Amino acid sequence: xxxxxxxxxxxxxxxxxxxxxxxxxxxxxxxxxxxxxxxxxxxxxxxxxxxxx
Length: 53
Known about the structure:
Number of strands: 0
Radius of gyration: 12 Å
Strand content: under 5%
Number of helices: 3
C-alpha cells in the first residue's frame, strides 16, 4: 500500500473544486459518496453546506 501522507498534507485545506460547488448549487442532493477523497476537503464542504442544512 502506498503512503499518502505527503499528498494529504500538501492538499489539506485546498480550495473546493468549483465544479462540485456549481453542481451542488444546481441539483438537490440527498446523499453522496466521495471516492478517493484525498484530504477530504470536498467531503467536509458537502457535510457543512449540504447535509447539515
